[in-house]
Amino acid sequence: MAVMTITKENFTREVVQSDKPVLVDFWASWCGPCQMMGPVVEEVAAEHDELKVGQINVDEQQELASNFGIMSIPTLMVFRDGKAVQQAVGFRSKEQVLELL
Questions:
Q1: Residue 32's domain spans which residues?
Q2: Quick check: bond before 33 cis, omega within 30?
Q3: What total number of domains does the chain contain?
Q4: How confident is the model at residue 54 (pLDDT cuts 50, 70, 90)?
Q5: What is the pLDDT, as a whole number, of residue 1?
Q6: How far does Cα 47 stand from its chain's mean position?
Q7: pTM for the full predicted model
Q8: Residue 50 sits in a domain of what CATH number?
Q9: Residue 40 to residue 90: CA distance in whole angstroms
Q10: Helix, strand, coil shares of the chain as percentages rounded to 5?
Q11: 74 Cβ contact partners less than 8 Å away, ≥ 6 residues apart
């Protein structure tokens, strides 16, 4: 499954109401570690159909970033049943991302 772009307009539908766990990557285009994290997130999305994977650009979606207290990026959050259950800040290897799940 491809990585989806999550916005405040589709957040409820794609994350809160999802019947699958959702991995969300909070990122920005100017962030070096975020650029390194992107391919890892894409790999996880491609290899794990049992998940939804999305990215939230913190510059474009400041309200969502604020709602979740995002202070540093990249930040990964795992949502289950509409609730954030795991969080990791900074670059993570694919293995570390899978451990979060």
A1: 4-100
A2: no
A3: 1
A4: very high
A5: 79
A6: 16
A7: 0.95
A8: 3.40.30.10
A9: 13
A10: 35, 25, 40
A11: 25, 26, 27, 31, 33, 34, 37, 89, 90, 91
